[in-house]
Amino acid sequence: xxxxxxxxxxxxxxxxxxxxxxxxxxxxxxxxxxxxxxxxxxxxxxxxxxxxxxxxxxxxxxxxxxxxxxxxxxxxxxxxxxxxxxxxxxxxxxxxxxxxxxxxxxxxxxxxxxxxxxxxxxxxxxxxxxxxxxxxxxxxxxxxxxxxxxxxxxxxxxxxxxxxxxxxxxxxxxxxxxxxxxxxxxxxxxxxxxxxxxxxxxxxxxxxxxxxxxxxxxxxxxxxxxxxxxxxxxxxxxxxxxxxxxxxxxxxxxxxxxxxxxxxxxxxxxxxxxxxxxxxxxxxxxxxxxxxxxxxxxxxxxxxxxxxxxxxxxxxxxxxxxxxxxxxxxxxxxxxxxxxxxxxxxxxxxxxxxxxxxxxxxxxxxxxxxxxxxxxxxxxxxxxxxxx
Length: 388
Hints:
Blueprint lengths: L3 E9 L2 E8 L21 E4 L2 E4 L20 E5 L4 H12 L3 E6 L7 H6 L2 E4 L17 E4 L9 H18 L4 E7 L9 H16 L3 E6 L5 H11 L3 E5 L4 E2 L4 H13 L7 E4 L7 H12 L4 E5 L1 H11 L6 H13 L4 E2 L4 H7 L9 H29 L1
Parallel strand pairs: 5-6, 5-8, 6-7, 8-9, 9-10, 10-13, 11-14, 12-15
Antiparallel strand pairs: 1-2, 3-4
Helix pairs in contact: 1-6, 3-4, 5-7, 7-11, 8-9
């Protein structure tokens, strides 16, 4: 029997919404509701140019547990080739876990995961029939996955996650760790944020022992966005918005995640991981300029342009996915602070704040290493020229 769950959230008297999520096994793509307002069960809505019939109710997922006992050290990492996923894999292997990675079939195999010592299995969240066999013998799922930029947001981040959670429930997975986005419950008009929040609710209502970890931003993402373009004297794209983001090193995120997995006190909790300080785009650029020893060629994109572009792409069905991603960009360029106090989280996990890497130290280490390599390459080039 198909499983149906309800994700509901109340933001204000003027906006009381119910989100109905039907399992992938019976859900057509046009039944996903990325943004809906004021509806009841069995109502019809127009979303993204499609008329959607909504139904409400619940039906249990068949739970095949208990089965053959599995070792607590047996984990499955979803999204293992991504920025966060690969650090989760490395940390798990360093701590002695038996790591299995779900990877889509691809022309360039993820050989680096095998080289590290992980087991790679082929599967695709957009093809639910490929999921069950990959979960045999798994104790804990760590879900770092998100859709590729060229894919509709709903394909992996909603439909795929619903299928994965249902498979996990049916096969008796003991723990599920889900990475979400900070303040996703406060932006129902942004499809990616809405999906993350509804996936949190879907996971909670599944009954699986779980931990939800909301993240603010990765330090690693700043290298390609700011550090490399500055070194290569290329344009750096920024905005005129005062958004502040508390970036965190993905290695620290992975370390704290495994502390949370091992702690019974964290079961069923919602945690938010944030770096020691929140930074504006301009502050990050200024820091990179100082460490690189050269000025950045900054191209500023006004927030008004992003808003207009989003509105324009909403006018055409084939550009709806672009509009959905621009909606998230619009949040990142608004007067928003992506940060939370971490004192209670550090205390809960038994972590010393001094052990959390700061953005200054992260970028300083990067520029020191890369500038040394560039200096060595330049010296080698001069030496080769001499002998030629």
